[in-house]
Design a protein that fits this description.
single chain, alpha/beta, Rossmann fold, 3 domains, 7-stranded mixed sheet
Length: about 600
Amino acid sequence: MKKDNSTRREESGVPLKTTGREVMIGNFAIARGLVEAGLDLAAAYPGTPSSEILPGIIEFNRREKGNIHAEWSTNEKCAFEVAFGAALAGRKAACMMKQVGLNVAFPSLLKGRHKAIQGGLVVVSCDDPGPQSSQTEQDTRLLASLFNIPVFDPASPKEAGDIAYYALQYSYDHKTPVIIRPTHRVSHAREMIDLFSPGLREVTLNEGVKSGKGRKLGIVASGMSYALARDVISELVLEEVISLYKVVRVFPLERGVMEFVAGCDRVLVLEETDAVLEVLIDGGERVFGRRSGHVPGQGELTYDVVRGIVQQVTAGTGIKAGAFIPDPAIEEAMKGVNVLPRPPKLCAGCPHRASFFAMAYAYPDAVFPGDIGCYTLGIAMGAVDTCLDMGGGVTLASGFYDTFKQDGDLVPILASVGDSTFFHACLPPLYDAAQKKKQFILVIMDNGTTAMTGMQPTPQTGITADGSPASSIMIEDIVKGFGIEFVRIIDPYDIPLMIATAREAYDYLGKEGKGPAVIIARRECILTAKGKNVATWDMGRLEEDCIGCKACVKAFDCPGLAFDEERRKIRIDEGVCVKCGMCYFACPTSAEGKGLRKFQDKHSRVKG
C-alpha cells in the first residue's frame, strides 16, 4: 500500500517519496532494495559475508507487513532451486550465498541460466577477497562473464541497494537470471540509506561514472576497488591528471568502458580478485593490471596496496602528485600505535576445543580429516589435518581408510564435522561410507547452531528463519537410519568420557570389521549459553599451582589463557574466561590432568 508522505518537509533533506533514512550495512541495503522491488520469495544458506541478507529481508518484510516467503535452505543448491522454482512460476525471487557456496549451486545455475523464467531471479553471491573467512577468493564476476549471465559489482552499501532493486526489476522484465557480486567490504560497510515504499524507489544506473580530466592515465575500477582508487587519487592530489571510470555492470561490459579506454594513453585496471575487466577490455600493452604484473595476483586490494600500485604506474610518466597536507591530529594519534596480530581462535569455553583435545589425546598419531566451520580452527590443536570443502571431512576419511586398507593397516582416522555441515553436505558421503563399511570415527560437533556465520538455525534446531517453530530432524536418527550401529552421544566437556568413547569406537572398528563409528559431541554453543545457569570451575587453582610448563596454553590454545613471563606462571584473563575448567585436564599438576595420565598409562597409544 502506498504511504502518504505529503506532510514530510523537503528542508529536512529527505526526498518526499522516502519513508525515512537509516544507517545500515550493505547486506541490509541489498535486502531493502529487494523488498522494495516487490520480492516474493527468498532462500539462502548462511555464509560470511552474505549471512545478513536473509535476516534483513525478514525484518523489512515485517515492517512493511508483506507476504515474502523467506527460508534458510539446507545448502546453496537447495536455495537456488527453491528460488528458481518460484521464478519459473512467475514470482520475483532471490537466493543468497557466499562465493564458494555458488560452487554448490553451480550445476543448477549453469543449466537454469538458459531456461525461460516467467518471473525474476536475482542471485546474490558475496565474494571474499583476501580471503577473510573462506577457502578461496574466487571471483563470481568471472563465472558470470564466462557463462553470459549479467553481473553487477556495487561499490558501496547504497549502490548495492540500488542495484538489488534494479536487478530484480531487470530480471523480471527480461526473464533472465541476474547476479549481484558485492565483496565483504561492501556487505559489511555502513551507510545512510533512504527507505522507500515498495515499488516507489527511483533508480537510474549510469553506464559508468567518469571523473578527472587527465588523459595520460585512466583508471578503470569496479566495486570497492573504485572507492579506494578515488580516495588514493584525492590524497595524492591527482584529480586533474588521472581519469577514473567506475564500472557498475561488469557483464555485459558497459559500452562506455571502451570509449574511455580509447581516450587514454595508458589504462590501469583495478578490480578484485581476477582479471575480468582486464580481459574484457583487452587493450594490449598499454593496459596495466594483473596480467602485466602491476596488480598482485591474489589478496585483497587494500588502501595501501592501491596507493602503491598508483605510485608505481605513475612513476616515470611525467604525472606528478600535488601537495597533500595531512591532518596533524590524525598523525599525532597514530604515533606509537602498535596492534598485535591475533590469529583466529575458538571462543573461550567452546565445546569444540574440548572435543579436539580429547581426540588428539586419545590418538595423537591419528589422521584427522577436518571440515569447514568454526571447527577448522582445530588445526591449532593438532586435531585437524585437512580442510577441503563442506563434507570433505567424511569423504577424505573414506579415502584415507581405503588407502591404508590396501596396505593391510587399520590406522586411527578421526574425522570432524559440524551439525550444520552434516546436513549441508555429509549425508550422501556418510551413507556411502556406511554401505561400504568404511572403518573410521566421525565426530559430529553438535552445538545447536550455525555458529560461524551468525547463529542461524539448522534442520535440527526446530525453528525457521523468522523464528517460527518447525519440526526437528535429529542427527542420531539419520545416522542410525543409515545402518550405522556404533552411535554415541556425549557431552564434550566430559573429557575423560570423550577419550574413553573414542577408544571404544576404535576397538569396535577393529573387532567388528565394519564402520564407520559416530560420536555426537553435543553441547550448546558458548555464545548462546552465556548468561545461563551453568556450572563453573574455580580457576584460581590453575594460577596458584602453575609450574610454568605452558602445557595448558599449548594444548588448549584458549584466548582466556595467557602466560605471564615475569611471574613465569599462567594468568587467567577474567574478561574472556568463562570458567569452563577444561584447561585443568591439560595441566600436569592438577588432579584432572593426573587422572588423565593414569588412564593413558593403562592404554597403549595406537601409532599410525
